[in-house]
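Renewal narrative, Specific Aim 1. Our central claim is that a sequence can be written position by position from structural information alone. The example that follows is taken directly from our test logs and has not been curated for this report. It begins with the structure tokens describing the chain, in the order in which they were read.
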């Protein structure tokens, strides 16, 4: 069965993480994604660790199932080719600084002029409007400005960013969702539109109840380490040999937990129910921490799993990649790359009953598909393509 986006043509001007993650999700679902890259250097992540044989694993993961066309967008010929490709596209997506595509003559209005039902999407740090729209951003900037960094870490220590570029990924996921909504609307109305997604906005949108704590009660939340603002215990503890994460969200779970520990904690009025345990967690934590320290992580996980208490070891990446749950779910896919060889990477994080989302195509070498796209999509002949190469408007890199 065809995947839902197998007839979708996406012209992808994105780079680094937020945009490429978005278009990777759509490519995994079958879309044809043509990635436009700078001649000579390409996407910045082609130069990001880890490397093997001179190729980047970072780029290989985020750009699987895509094609690469090198194009000098600052040249008149490059701009003309980009506009011709927009005529063939369902979606155009970019994540340059606000206004960059307009200055190149390739913004939404230019795209709409050549294809009136185009869906044009922009991801940026702060959006296309507002006083910060031209401010430069990377993930840590969005985490800082979106409130996340201030909430992460321990109260007696400096703010800490989330270990991965979560603001980038979150913006990409939101954009993928918005593109699906826009495509659905176009199917029903025939109209395209412009979508503006900001990393600051999308970071703020996933701050759980922290914004509401302030707007509802005037409380300015601060860092609380691994604790939860509404439940206790909801924390990480040191064990006899490592660490363990434990979370109880209601009285039933905590009752099962104390029984598994062979203790009667709830008889103490300070800990009788969840709100009180949260309020008095400074007194509760040492009791739990002392018990955890006397047991190994494996023993605690086995004991609490039997009691249906949410618990987990704190997995390292090596343990995660080889975990039987991850393997059983098909979350590690093997892909053959012409330079990197066989490599394992995370698969698509959802399972469908009537379609597959395999890694069909390795991430392209820089400009690998230039000739095929110019000839196959735009109908340019060999002489014309050769002339473009001579002027360094485009480049073609062959597979190794």
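The sequence written for that structure reads:
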């Amino acid at each position: 069965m065809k995947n839902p986006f197998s007839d979708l043509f996406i012209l992808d001007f994105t780079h680094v993480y937020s945009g490429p993650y978005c278009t990777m999700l759509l490519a995994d679902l079958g879309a044809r994604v043509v990635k436009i890259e700078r001649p000579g250097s390409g996407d910045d992540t082609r130069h990001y660790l880890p490397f093997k044989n001179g190729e980047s694993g970072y780029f290989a993961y985020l750009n699987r199932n895509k094609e690469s066309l090198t194009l000098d967008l600052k040249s008149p010929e490059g701009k003309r080719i980009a506009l011709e490709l927009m005529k063939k596209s369902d979606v155009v997506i970019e994540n340059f600084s606000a206004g960059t595509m307009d200055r190149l003559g390739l913004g939404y209005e230019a795209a709409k002029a050549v294809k009136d039902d185009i869906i044009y999407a922009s991801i940026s740090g702060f959006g296309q409007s507002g006083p910060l729209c031209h401010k430069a951003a990377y993930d840590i900037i969005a985490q800082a400005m979106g409130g996340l960094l201030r909430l992460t870490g321990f109260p007696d220590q400096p703010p800490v960013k989330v270990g991965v570029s979560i603001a980038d990924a979150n913006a990409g996921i939101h954009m993928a969702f918005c593109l699906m909504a826009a495509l659905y609307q176009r199917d029903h109305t025939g109209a395209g539109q412009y979508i503006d997604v900001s990393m600051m906005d999308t970071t703020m949108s996933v701050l759980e109840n922290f914004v509401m704590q302030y707007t509802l009660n005037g409380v300015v939340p601060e860092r609380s380490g691994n604790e939860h603002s509404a439940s206790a215990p909801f924390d990480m503890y040191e064990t006899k040999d490592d660490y363990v994460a434990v979370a109880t969200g209601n009285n039933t779970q905590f009752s099962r937990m104390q029984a598994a520990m062979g203790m009667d904690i709830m008889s103490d009025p300070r800990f009788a129910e969840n709100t009180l345990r949260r309020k008095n967690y400074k007194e509760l934590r040492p009791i739990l921490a002392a018990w955890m320290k006397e047991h190994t992580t494996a023993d605690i996980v086995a004991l609490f799993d039997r009691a249906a208490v949410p618990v987990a070891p704190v997995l390292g990446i090596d343990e995660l990649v080889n975990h039987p749950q991850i393997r059983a779910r098909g979350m590690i896919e093997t892909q053959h790359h012409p330079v990197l060889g066989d490599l394992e990477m995370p698969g698509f994080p959802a399972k469908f009953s009537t379609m597959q989302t395999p890694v069909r195509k390795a991430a392209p070498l820089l400009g690998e598909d230039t000739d095929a796209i110019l000839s196959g999509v735009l109908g340019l002949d060999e002489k014309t393509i050769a002339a473009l190469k001579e002027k360094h408007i485009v480049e073609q890199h062959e597979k190794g």
